[in-house]
Amino acid sequence: MTKHAPHIVLAGVDLERRATTSLVEQLYSGLRRAILSGQLRPGTRLPSTRAFATDNNISRNTVVSAFEQLLMEGYLEAKVGAGTCVASSLPDEILTAGNSAEPSVPLSSRSIRLSRRGDVLARERVRLLTVQGTAKPFASGHPDVAAFPIKIWARLTARRWRQRSEGLLTYGDPAGYLPLRQAIASYIRTARAVRCGEEQVIVVSGSQQAIDLITRLLTDPGDSALVEDPGYPGARAALRAAGASLIRLPVDSEGANIQQVREESSRIRLAIVTPSHQYPLGVTMTLPRRLALIQWARQQRAWILEDDYDSDYRYRGRPLPSLQGLDGTGRVIYMGSFSKTIFPSLRLGFVVLPDALVEPFRRARAVVDGHSPTPYQAVLADFISEGHFARHIRRMRTLYEQRQMALVETTRRELAGLLEVDVSEGGMHLVGWLPHGANDAHVSRAVRSCGVYASPLSACAIGNIKRGGLLLGYAGFESSQIRKGVKTLRAALEHALR
């Protein structure tokens, strides 16, 4: 089967028919310049002489003559079955021949000036707690994508494309695809006791976008915001980028404690909390703490952003009602994501807003990126409304609980005296507590060099922490991987803690 070169029109090769130099010379010089500058990389396959001539509206003989000269000088090479390509290796004298112009000096990161907001964004490390690609034990925040019912998803996707789908290909509503908003509202009213209608639900491109938009809408530079300490680094990053000052919201075994926040902090506009399953400690905020936080927001006329990031994975007891469901004054914004329950690359989440914030948020969403991809929203709407989502969640709860127990049992057996781990009522990771005085950042780097990924607890804290720990994700790994990872972790810890 004949292989065809990619049909490309080379930018930068301008042929001037009234010039004093011939078209052959112009074409030769332009291609040579493109090779020397790196525009045409070694191994790049060029179009056939016939196609090149047609694209540039010149004689094929002109192209053949220019190609032959470049072949003779070593810039190009002819390969059987592959046509004409840029030479895979160019001699040093060719790279410098006739190149008397001043060498271009690329801009360095030190030579550019970012805005204050840009500087903050560039310095934040919001993905500190995750890894890209295939995850290694014990990276946190990774669901088991291999266990996702991809055949059902593929069938729903194919069905959508078989139907008349012109409406999915045009611009969509910044608030999101209406059937998906209806499906989300129906689900969270039942599963999370959220009080809402579909008109209050806005679909976003993941939870990070929701946090970013909310902080920009509700805080001005110089305002203060409460963040759990330790807490989610992405929330801190968004607030800093918006120019807000961060105030610690201490967390203990009963969750975030608003009573420990000084009353003189009168310019607090927003509090970001994870009451159902606190990130990263995994504790649940007690009812008295929840009511106290809502009372505080009412008195301060502040907003609460409830990040309900993995509450679907609760293994014991009854499902916990949302903080938003307890609020009767419209001061709580509820946020959820499908990154942990479907798959991370879907990049779909949602916020439930008080009525007064719906239209401002919808307009802000339109400014940022218009809307999330409508075809994905349509498939997700079908996945939820036809019951596949609820069945998938039930199946993953059982699987993840088994994996948590495998991690706890293996850790207690293999890592006694090195790492303490307790059973959690839900979630996708556990905190492994190091011996008192151990530097968890140092230990994290040491174990990573041995092929085990375990983020330090201190990366989630604003200041110093009383005791170091490692975040041990288990959801995305089979029990055999967990047991093998614990054994590797033991050797790494023994070396790091000497």
Q: How many domains make up the coordinates? A: 3
Q: Give the beta-strand count.
A: 13
Sketch the major β-sheet. 8 strands, mixed
Decide which structural class fits the backbone: alpha/beta
Rg measurement, Å: 29 Å
CATH architecture descriptor of the largest domain: 3-Layer(aba) Sandwich
Globally, the shape reads globular
Give unreliable regions as ranges.
1-5
Element-by-element helix/strand order: HHHEEHHHHHEHEHEEEHEEEHHHEHEEH
From the N-terminal CA to the C-terminal CA, the straight-line distance is: 62 Å
Classify the helix fraction into a percent range: 25-40%
Query: What is the CATH superfamily label of the largest domain?
Result: Type I PLP-dependent aspartate aminotransferase-like (Major domain)
Would you state the CATH class of the largest domain? Alpha Beta
Q: Tell me the CATH topology of the largest domain.
A: Aspartate Aminotransferase, domain 2
Tell me what the structure shows.
The protein has 498 residues and is α/β, with parallel strands linked by helices. The protein has 3 domains: 23-96, Arc Repressor Mutant, subunit A (Orthogonal Bundle); 149-386, 3-Layer(aba) Sandwich (Aspartate Aminotransferase, domain 2); 391-496, Aspartate Aminotransferase, domain 1 (Alpha-Beta Complex), CATH 3.90.1150. 39% of the residues lie in helices and 12% in strands. It is built from 16 helices and 13 strands. It has helices spanning 23-37, 49-56, 60-73, 92-96, 116-123, 150-162, 166-169, 178-191, 207-218, 233-241, 287-300, 355-368, 374-385, 388-414, 440-448, 479-496, and strands at 76-79, 83-86, 201-204, 224-229, 245-252, 255-256, 268-273, 303-307, 332-337, 349-352, 429-433, 455-456, 469-473. The strands form 3 sheets. Strands 3-10-9-8-7-4-5-6 form an 8-stranded mixed β-sheet, sandwiched between helices. Helix 8 (178-191) crosses helix 13 and helix 9 (207-218) packs parallel to helix 10 (233-241). The radius of gyration is 29 Å and the shape is globular. The termini are far apart.
